[in-house]
From TrEMBL:
Family listed: Belongs to the group II decarboxylase family.
Any GO BP: carboxylic acid metabolic process
Residues annotated as signal peptide: 1-20
The protein's name in its UniProt record: Putative histidine decarboxylase (HDC) (TOM92)
UniProt source species: Segatella baroniae B14
Chain positions with N6-(pyridoxal phosphate)lysine modification: 259
Length: 405
């Protein structure tokens, strides 16, 4: 019966699209048809498929904004932002979120980014510049071997010496391994994973900070937090201190907009301390009336408007409820897998459950991400419990697993 209800719910969800006006381009309309019914069983990746931007697009079209070309080139935190931009709204977005990440609103700088990777790129670039300006020495970057691959790629792009630190079997950087690999004669650029890619692990920042504190001979330390997914929901839970600058003493943090916050295209936030910003290489661009410290010149002017809209429409109270629901459904999924004897694991504070990989049919139906780890028997898959993954849908997934045996 639960399986029947799940199928009916999927059909009802799809029906709202069936009578939408076609584009007139068969290739485009056919492409839309291939994915719209699959949204309900999109389980394997950290994308919120319950976007709340419909009203935004109605406003955007009825006001004629679609024919206006805006560009957020320049620094949104200056008193005189570039006129043809949404930087005034971007600044409001940064100032709204700053306290949720433990920043002093008077000592923060930030931008709305193109993605979480863009935020990490700024974190690594700002961190390297900060350390070089402070010490006149080249830093070494330290990152977990289970952190998102973008951190390694970006360090390679920026030609920064990198040391991969071993993680434990659950995906957390091992403090003893960090200490073993530390070069205390060089500045340290730390990347903390706030939710590793496959296992949803959180590096123990307090333990890792303690390692660094034991070595006052290190010339300087910069800490960047890659919080693409977990940085979205943790500020709205009782675990908010885990992403607090005041509590964890990091210098910068990157968060995605297209994960927890439900943007329909990649975006994100990058926040850092004012001291970090002040120790960047400054490019004075007269024609923009701006001191350019960020990497990008042109930046999206629509994404800050979406963030601002969601702050007004959704806000902290609803985000708190969504975060609680996600974590409750994560526990429900784990218990349901345990109940049928399907090997599964989950990290504390995480919305990611990884488990023994099922048949390829189920992997395809539920768009499950795949991994491999000998510690857990080899072939694995995972589900990232986002806002659209409800207990009813989990029941449907469990039934599919049971029937596949």
């Amino acid at each position: 019966m639960k399986r029947v209800c799940f199928i009916l719910a999927t059909l009802l969800f799809s029906a709202q699209y069936m009578y939408a006006q076609p584009s007139g381009y068969k290739k485009l309309d056919k492409w839309v048809d291939t994915w719209k019914t699959g949204l309900q069983t999109y389980f394997g990746y950290p994308i919120n498929q319950k976007s709340e931007l419909h009203d935004f697009y109605e406003w955007y079209l009825t006001t004629g904004m679609e024919v206006i070309n805006l560009n957020n080139a320049g620094d949104p935190m200056t008193d005189e932002p570039w006129k043809m931009s949404s930087q005034a709204f971007e600044r409001e977005v940064i100032e709204y979120f700053a306290p949720y990440y433990g920043f002093d609103i008077n000592q923060v700088w930030g931008i709305v980014t193109h993605s979480g990777t863009d935020g990490n790129n700024h974190g690594i670039y700002f961190g390297a510049n900060y350390l070089k300006n402070k010490t006149k020495m080249e830093p070494i970057l330290y990152v977990s071997d289970e952190a998102h691959y973008s951190n390694m790629r970006l360090a390679h792009l920026q030609n920064i010496e990198t040391r991969l630190i071993k993680s434990d079997k659950m995906g957390r950087m091992i403090a003893e391994e960090l200490e073993k690999n530390l070069d205390t004669s060089r500045p340290v650029l730390m990347i903390y994973a706030m939710g590793s890619t496959f296992k949803g692990a959180i590096d123990d920042m307090e333990a890792l900070n303690a390692v660094l504190d034991r070595h006052p001979e290190i010339p300087a330390v910069y800490r960047h937090v890659d919080a693409a997914l977990f940085g979205g929901y943790l500020p709205f839970t009782q675990y908010r201190n885990m992403v607090s600058q005041q509590a964890m003493h990091f210098e910068s943090i990157a968060i995605s907009g297209h994960k927890f916050f439900g943007f329909d295209s990649p975006s994100g936030l990058f926040l850092c301390t004012r001291d970090t910003y002040d120790n960047q290489t400054n490019f004075n661009v007269t024609y923009l009336n701006s001191n350019m410290r960020m990497i990008n010149c042109s930046r999206d002017a629509v994404q800050p408007l979406k963030f601002w809209w969601l702050i007004q429409k959704v806000g902290a109270e609803k985000w708190s409820k969504q975060a609680q629901q996600m974590l409750e459904c994560t526990k429900y999924l784990k218990k349901s897998l345990d109940k049928i004897g399907w090997p599964a694991w989950v990290n504390e504070y995480s919305n990611t459950v990884f488990f023994r990989r099922p048949s390829q049919d189920i992997v395809s139906l539920y768009t499950l991400a795949q991994g491999y780890d000998e510690h857990f028997g080899g072939e694995l898959a995972h589900i990232v419990v986002m806002q659209h993954v409800t207990q009813e849908k989990i029941d449907g997934f469990i039934e599919a697993l049971k029937n596949s045996r």
